[in-house]
Amino acid sequence: MQVLETPLRDVKLIQPQRFGDSRGWFAEVFNQSTFAAAGLSAHFVQDNQSFSVKGVLRGLHYQLGKPQGKLVRVLSGHIWDVAVDLRRESPDFGKWAGFYLKTESSADHLQLLWIPERFAHGFLVLSDTAEVLYKTTNIYHPQGERSILWNDSTLAIDWPLEALNGIPPSVSAKDALGRHFLEAELPPVEVPHLV
């Protein structure tokens, strides 16, 4: 497994090793020991899967009280995945990074995206359809669910909307009511534990 750095501290692209021949391929997509040995300590408690059509934009989601770290993998299709650092004590606070994630050919790398707790997450579907699977470090907590508007002017995320050929992204009614970044209720500052 290769762990690749990204423009955001603690957000990582992960490439599991794939073994293949003329019959197909095999990959160990997740192993708790390997993940921890790479310095990515996480205990996953829930798996979520979504199916979406082209132009669907989900996010930007995060939870208060029971924040979720996410290990994101595209099972089919092609998405543009975004992480936003909501950690006020972080040098990357308010910064975002986007990643093209897709089902690769057997000759290319598998890629997963690790997004730690206290980040907002969203994605735009660029293919006709896409299935996305993500493991989370905490259960869904409806009372703590929050959303930032995908097109917030302060964040100024450069979504690849040109791939939609002039059709506006399809956003859920709930996501359309997301808050602006400067008005959003953000996770509390994490105070280091004293030993």
TrEMBL record:
It holds the Pfam family dTDP_sugar_isom. One of its GO terms (cellular component) is cytosol. Pathway: Carbohydrate biosynthesis; dTDP-L-rhamnose biosynthesis. GO terms for molecular function: dTDP-4-dehydrorhamnose 3,5-epimerase activity. Keywords: Isomerase. Gene3D superfamilies: Jelly Rolls (2.60.120.10). It is an enzyme of class 5 (isomerase). The keyword Lipoprotein does not apply. InterPro entries: RmlC-like, RmlC-like_jellyroll, RmlC_Cupin_sf. The keyword Isomerase applies. It catalyses: dTDP-4-dehydro-6-deoxy-alpha-D-glucose = dTDP-4-dehydro-beta-L-rhamnose. The record marks 140 as: Participates in a stacking interaction with the thymidine ring of dTDP-4-oxo-6-deoxyglucose. GO terms for biological process: dTDP-rhamnose biosynthetic process; polysaccharide biosynthetic process. Its EC number is 5.1.3.13. The active site is at residues 61, 134. Belongs to the dTDP-4-dehydrorhamnose 3,5-epimerase family. Catalyzes the epimerization of the C3' and C5'positions of dTDP-6-deoxy-D-xylo-4-hexulose, forming dTDP-6-deoxy-L-lyxo-4-hexulose. Homodimer. This is dTDP-4-dehydrorhamnose 3,5-epimerase.
